[in-house]
């Protein structure tokens, strides 16, 4: 089946630093999504990408949908303590197959 | 409510018992999904309901797992004869049934099998 490889698995950064994480897939996806999950809560959607090559920003977050449709990255600029959490990438094939395939997550820790 | 609502938030039960988990999707969302998240892992797809069509059950791990969605709204995930490996957080998501509509998640039910 489809698998998503997400890296890094965990990161420790200083407040104010920029962060980059990425996902690669063995299969093509038509939609890439990035979610953030805080302890005891469900994932919250950060950015959705629908077209190959698309670059989308949401405040300090920027994500790109790779040209090959097999990868995506998420950048966080000028990190702050509330950025702490687990970030998941997810791919969706669409066209009648709407379930999401998730990466295993990147755990981000921000040192004040 | 405004978001996806799941109940109970926590459930502890003995091995071999049956459990029912409930999901109330966002009003107007016709697609509903169940996922399972084991400790330290990503989310694993279980089952997908779309409108009045037959559900996609391809992710259910065994015949002990089943789900219903009555009236196109509330869904119940049932696990029969629970095993310790069923311990996980069970998450529900909903979306509009058109392309390019992202899924919105509830906070999940944390299931612990003793």
Q: Roughly how much helix do the residues of chain A carry, as a percent range?
A: under 10%
Decide which structural class fits the backbone of chain B. mainly beta
Strand content of chain A: over 45%
Helix % of chain B is under 10%
Q: Note the main sheet of chain A.
A: 6 strands, mixed
Low-confidence stretches of chain B: none
Radius of gyration of chain B, taken over Cα atoms and rounded to an integer in Å = 13 Å
Fold blueprint:
The complex is a heterodimer of chains A (112) and B (114).
Chain A: E1 4-7, E2 10-14, E3 19-25, E4 31-37, E5 44-49, E6 55-58, E7 61-65, E8 71-76, E9 85-94, E10 97-102, E11 106-111
Parallel strand pairs in A: 2-11
Antiparallel strand pairs in A: 1-3, 3-8, 4-5, 4-9, 6-7, 7-8, 9-10, 9-11
Chain B: E1 5-7, E2 10-13, E3 19-24, E4 31-37, E5 43-50, E6 65-69, E7 75-79, E8 88-95, E9 104-105, E10 109-113
Parallel strand pairs in B: 2-10
Antiparallel strand pairs in B: 1-3, 3-7, 4-5, 4-8, 6-7, 8-9, 8-10
Would you give an account of this structure?
The complex is a heterodimer of chains A (112) and B (114). Chain A is mostly beta strands. Chain A has no helices and eleven strands. Chain A is globular, with a radius of gyration of 13 Å. The mean pLDDT of chain A is 93. Chain B has 114 residues and is an all-beta fold. Chain B contains no helices and ten strands. Chain B has strands spanning 5-7, 10-13, 19-24, 31-37, 43-50, 65-69, 75-79, 88-95, 104-105, 109-113. In chain B, strands 2, 4, 5, 8, 9 and 10 form a six-stranded mixed sheet that branches. In chain B, strands 1-3-7-6 form a four-stranded antiparallel sheet, with no helix packed on it. The relative contact order of chain B is 0.33. The model of chain B has no long low-confidence stretch (mean pLDDT 92). Chain A binds chain B through residues 4, 6, 31, 33, 35, 40-45, 48, 50, 88, 90, 94-95, 98-105, and chain B through 4, 31, 33, 35, 40-45, 48, 50, 56, 59, 91, 93, 95, 99-100, 102-108.
């Amino acid at each position: 089946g489809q698998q998503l490889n997400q890296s890094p698995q965990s990161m420790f950064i200083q407040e104010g630093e920029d962060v980059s994480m990425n996902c690669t897939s063995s299969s093509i996806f038509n939609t890439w999504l990035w979610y953030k999950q805080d302890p005891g809560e469900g994932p919250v959607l950060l950015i959705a990408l629908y077209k190959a090559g698309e670059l989308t920003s949401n405040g300090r977050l920027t994500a790109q949908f790779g040209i090959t449709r097999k990868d995506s990255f998420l950048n966080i600029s000028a990190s702050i303590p509330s950025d702490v959490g687990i970030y998941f990438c997810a791919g969706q094939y669409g066209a009648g197959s709407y379930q999401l395939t998730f990466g295993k997550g990147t755990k981000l820790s921000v040192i004040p | 409510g405004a978001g996806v609502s799941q109940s109970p938030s926590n459930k502890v039960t003995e091995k071999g018992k049956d459990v029912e988990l409930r999901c109330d999707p966002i009003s107007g969302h016709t697609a509903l999904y169940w996922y399972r998240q084991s400790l330290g892992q990503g989310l694993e797809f279980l089952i997908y309901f779309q409108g009045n069509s037959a559900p996609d059950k391809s992710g259910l791990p065994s015949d002990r797992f089943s789900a219903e969605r009555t009236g196109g709204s509330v869904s119940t995930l049932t696990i029969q004869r629970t095993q310790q490996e069923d311990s996980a957080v069970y998450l529900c998501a909903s979306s509009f049934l058109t392309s390019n509509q992202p899924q919105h998640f509830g906070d999940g039910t944390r299931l612990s099998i003793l």
